Amino acid sequence: MRPVVNRILIGLAGLALVCAGGAALAAGAGFSVPSWWPWYGPGDVLLSDADRARWREEGWWWPTVIAVLAVLVLLALWWLLAQLRRSRLAEVLVDSGDGDGALLRGRALESVMTAEAESLDGVSQASVTLAGRRRTAPEARLRLRLEPHAAPAETLTRLVGEVLTHAEQSTGLAPLPAEARLRASKHRPERVV
Predict the structure, then answer these.
(1) CA distances from residue 134 to 29, 50, 140, 176 in whole angstroms, order as listed
(2) Which of 8, 43, 140, 174 could form a disulfide linkage to 178, CB 3.0–4.6 angstroms apart?
């Protein structure tokens, strides 16, 4: 969800900046602009003296400006913190049978699952990421790059039957939800004789 929101926000901000910059450049270069456009030519300024001093005498002006800027800063900080939030699971709580449990490093489980997925026939490259919370069941996100001769249905069946089953059995996490993304590796076309 977050990458989609990021792309939309960055795209909208970029579109707004390109439109505003292009319009200001067109007006500054002397091209004809619509009559409703605030800048008409190269000698025009963005804010005249009258525009800048227009609202200074009003009592609501400065609190409104400060409130709008504070909201913009808080939204920017929220977005930055959302980017820095860790999406990987650092530790997995494994039931050890003694009631206390044991902590398994998330990277260790990811590397074992990656190695096992790469050993499957037809998989040239694999990547596993665990997401979620330590106390609840984690979610595995697998990305596989398939070789040209690989059958996706067979690879997916073996992935569920071997890699995910072994991970569930070894950690005691009976339901291990997973999302797998399969991509074909690029290769040269082969000649048919």
Answers:
(1) 59, 60, 13, 13
(2) 140
Distance CA 29, CA 22 (A): 10
Residue 129 near residue 90, CB atoms below 8 Å: no
- 30-61 pLDDT, tens digit per residue, is 787 777 777 776 777 767 778 777 777 788 88
What pLDDT does residue 1 have?
A: 53
Is there a contact between 24 and 39 (Cβ–Cβ < 8 Å)? yes
Amino acid symbol at 171: T
pTM of the model: 0.55
pLDDT lower than 70: segments of the chain: 1-2, 41, 46, 85-87, 134-137, 187, 190-193
User: What residues are paired with 104 via a beta bridge?
Assistant: 92
Strands (E), the chain: 91-94, 102-105, 123-131, 139-146, 178-184
The residue among 128, 133, 136 whose CA lies nearest residue 86 is: 133
- What's domain 91-184's superfamily in CATH? ANL, C-terminal domain (3.30.300.30)
